[in-house]
Amino acid sequence: MPDVKILIADAVRYHQAGHLNEAIARYRQVLVLDPENAGVHNNLGTAFCDQGMLDEAQACYHQALILGPHDAEAHNNLGTLLYQQGKLHEAVSSYRKAIVLKPDHVEAHDNLGTALASLGKPDEALACYRRALAYRPSNVAVRVHLGTLLWEQGRLEEAAAAFRRALEFHPNDTGALDHLAAVTMLQGDAAMAMDIIWRSLQIAETQNSKSVFVDIAKNSRWTRSDPKIRATLTRALVEPWARPGELAHAAIALLKATPGIADCVTRAVQAWPQYLSAKDLYGSGALCADELLCEFLNSTQNIDIGFERFLTMARRLLLDHAASVVEDTPGEDLAFYNALARQCFINEYVFFHTADEIREAQGLRDRLTKALEMSMPVPALWVIAVAAYFPLHTLSFSARLLEMPWGAPLAALVAQQVTEPGLIRQLCDTMPKWTPVEDPVSRMVQDQYEENPYPRWVRTALVQNPVTFGEYFNRKFPLAPFRRGAGPDRVEMLCAGCGTGLNAIEFAMAVKHMHVVAVDLSLLSLGHAKFRTGELGVTSVDYVQADILRLGAAAGGFDLIECSGVLHHMADAFAGWRSLLSLLKPDGFMLVGLYSEIARRGVVRARQLIAERGFGAGADDIRRCRQVLLDFNAQENLGLATTNADFFGISSCRDLLFHSHEQQMTLGRIAAFLRDNDLTFLGFEIEDRVLYAYRKRFPNDPAAVDLDNWQIFERDNPATFSSMYMLWVQKRA
């Protein structure tokens, strides 16, 4: 007969090593021999819980408590399970039972605090954390939880003190370092925050430490180049650690702080609109060797006027150089020019060009096409230069480019401009269609996005640690008063107006057991979305073409609906919103993005100028219009119209300034709609620095859910919602 003690020791060893299947098998062997061993039932429950088998875990904990009703550990473990299931009140009850049985149970006090915080009871939660620390002052996890809750309340000095105290006990705790870095950034010390997060990244590169690095970097404006930050930022763009567009400002600031590149940008800006020679623009700089510059251009759209001037001149020099060569030059480093061509494709050739320049580009395109037709070798520089002015897939015989033995960078350029567009078109041909598109406004919007899919993006971060539906909202809105719960076992989400799929994909990765139905008017946008989804290996998103005004019963009911940047393009935005609410289940959540009337005053003024001067919405008119608006901006500040990231691409600029139909909203109108439709406002999707500024201004609203206060805040800070009002609501049961 096997020795029970040996089996238990083996099970515990396997459990601690993370070998859960082996641990479960050993625990079960023990229970065959000793079925009334309460401790083993408890351990088996924890193993099941660690494996995500929550129903089995709950049965084990209940059996452990039947056999040992005074086991504080089992009550605590059951509470943790109930918390994971979203049964917060039951979890609180279990934690309290554990504490009654064992008043110095530090983990139970800590867990009780977390559950109470999730129930919107921060003061009670703080008391729990402090009681836990009274029993064990060295517990780093509790100090981090205490600091996090203080941070959420806007008490940054106390939060930073809590994180520093945790680090006194455990200097290499990455959780404490990450949180301290984030709070230090909010306190305005970007340099210190970067030093702290750099230290954390050297200890362990976690998803959280990478996310904090991104938040710090995107709010930093460097005045000197730092090699370690350059290397880290390059990795953050390539891997990526976030949407590369979030790091565009940071990358540009660091590049413009790099002596050789800074000089190029300065010379280009000073000479504009006159073009410079290669010697006058580049001087003795070695741009081809700059990895950060190349990866930035490969990853996302440039969003800086000065940098655009430099890139525009560099493109002209590329064209002149290419037109003069007849064969490849051995050893020539084309990395920068290759990246420049990829950037031009990403922004859809938004850069200004003269009539002579485009004629020269067309001439080189014709030479390249003729060479391809005759199956002749072509210089790499021809391909790169033509790709910087025209998408390669539009060339006759472009498929022959795929057969040529290019090096890795040029092969990536050819894949971007020949392979991918072909695959996207194939995906468009197989797209399911749920409804016709008959509404006149819907048809105008559809036509726009068939011509210009939006937004254009290359890559986004893979989520490594998805959470449950309940955890997602408890973490996002720890202080907001709303109906909390575990959510369904399978979460059904509607992404209404998904465009090129970025939001749908990110939600599918972030929440466990999520199935997303992503709907859009534009087949070409859906093709882009489906291509990127497959590229990332995401399998839980289904794309369909439909008019969301006509979804009705075809779509079913949803636990979550996301509709960003869509309703304000309808004939009646609020009617469209009500239509979507009819598809939302009771207690379901909705994320809605609407344009702000205050933030878009500059856009309205720019549209008046566009109408007065008769610009159309075609690519050539957009290029010319942008230059006119930039010149006009020197006389009258157009604000968002020329500073928004969307100004820097053809599709995005058309969406920003040339949309076929748009209306703006005010927070007062939105608040009235929420009241009339029985919706609970949970908060905005907004940066921590803005949330901190709001809480500092309105300390009596720590949950940040008073829309009257937000109206005052926006009036005093007109750029707060420069993108959109991104508001979360819950439908009351």
Structural commentary:
The radius of gyration is 29 Å and the shape is globular. By secondary structure, it is an alpha/beta fold. It is built from 35 helices and seven strands. Strands 3-2-1-4-5-7-6 form a seven-stranded mixed sheet, sandwiched between helices. The longest helix is centred in the middle third of the chain and has 22 residues, at 408-429. Strand 2 (514-520), helix 27 (523-536) and strand 3 (541-545) form a beta-alpha-beta unit. The protein has four domains: 4-177, Tetratricopeptide repeat domain (Serine Threonine Protein Phosphatase 5, Tetratricopeptide repeat, Alpha Horseshoe); 258-425, no CATH class; 440-598 and 664-685 and 722-731, Rossmann fold, CATH 3.40.50.150; 601-647, no CATH class. The two termini are 57 Å apart.
Provide a brief overview of the structure.
With 733 residues, the chain is of the alpha/beta class. The protein has four domains: 4-177, Serine Threonine Protein Phosphatase 5, Tetratricopeptide repeat (Alpha Horseshoe), CATH 1.25.40.10; 258-425, no CATH class; 440-598 and 664-685 and 722-731, Vaccinia Virus protein VP39 (Rossmann fold, 3-Layer(aba) Sandwich), CATH 3.40.50; 601-647, no CATH class. A seven-stranded mixed β-sheet has the order 3-2-1-4-5-7-6, sandwiched between helices.
Structural topology:
Elements (H helix, E strand, L loop, with lengths): L3 H13 L3 H14 L4 H13 L3 H14 L4 H13 L3 H14 L4 H13 L3 H14 L4 H13 L3 H14 L4 H13 L3 H14 L3 H12 L8 H12 L9 H9 L2 H13 L6 H5 L8 H9 L5 H19 L11 H12 L8 H19 L6 H8 L20 H22 L10 H12 L17 H8 L14 E6 L5 H9 L3 E7 L2 H14 L4 E5 L12 E7 L8 H9 L2 E11 L6 H12 L6 H15 L6 H4 L6 H8 L9 H10 L2 E6 L3 H10 L9 H10 L8 E7 L2
Helix pairs in contact: 1-2, 2-3, 3-4, 3-5, 4-5, 5-6, 5-7, 6-7, 7-8, 7-9, 8-9, 9-10, 9-11, 10-11, 11-12, 11-13, 12-13, 14-18, 16-19, 18-20, 19-21, 19-22, 20-22, 20-23, 21-22, 23-27
